[in-house]
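thread: overnight batch results

M.L. [08:02]
morning all. the overnight job finished for the chain we discussed friday. pasting input first so we're all looking at the same thing
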Amino acid sequence: MYKFDLDRFPCDVTAVLAEYQHQDEPFYMGGGRVILVENNILIAVDSDDGPKIIFFEEYTISDISEKPEEDSIIYTKSGKMIVFSVDDSCGCGSRLRGWNPYKTLKRLKG
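M.L. [08:03]
and the structure it wrote out:
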């Protein structure tokens, strides 16, 4: 079984390439689920077909806020900067709330 270092939902997530951190067009997504496990960051969204992983990568540096509503920052091995925080919605109706990522993580790490 996996021990999650962090599992936050629902999250606002912003991602940019590290070398373009000062540009105006980062990727933004609301209502996602962010999971940190074994030095990997997994970002999932609720799609028409249920929970879908849109990002999975090893990270090298993290600055995780103890307060979920404050920004946490992850730098991935490939140079992306991911900033996330829990948003103020309840996430009601999202299948991400009850989604168990253990089975999916086994396939990804397998």
